[in-house]
Design a protein that fits this description.
3 strands; globular
């Protein structure tokens, strides 16, 4: 399976949706923040590994706690993934923190601040 094939893209999308559901509904670890989302899942062509990029909207402590909770529940998430998806091999899941959503929110706020300052100077 080529890295950019349609089958690979469909598989990545399906794994991403299933991991989101598993994190939301199945994993009961209190360390996992409710505003946790899977932004991307990349399954290796041999189906042995999967990188799941996780975004957590919260402070640094909540982000660290969520990643620790997810890493400790990786085996359970893999078991749930195996039961919900019919794959030849169920990939080993590696959770990676993704800061892109938080970065986008911060940049949007800064742009809004600059636009408000610019608007205030035009009225003078």
């Amino acid at each position: 399976m080529r890295k950019n094939s349609r089958k690979s893209a469909r598989l990545n999308e399906e794994v991403m949706h299933e991991l989101s559901r598993i994190i939301r509904d199945e994993i009961k670890d209190p360390r996992i923040h409710p505003m946790t989302s899977v932004t991307l899942a990349e399954v290796a062509p041999d189906l042995k590994t999967c990188k799941a990029y996780i975004s957590v909207l919260g402070d640094e402590k909540e982000q660290r706690d969520t990643m620790a909770g997810l890493n400790s529940a990786a085996g359970y998430a893999r078991k749930c993934l195996a039961s919900s998806l019919n794959l030849r091999n169920t990939p080993e899941i590696r959770f990676i923190q993704d800061q892109s959503i938080e970065y986008g929110i911060r940049m949007s706020r800064k742009i809004d601040e600059v636009m408000q300052k610019e608007g205030g100077h035009d009225k003078s």
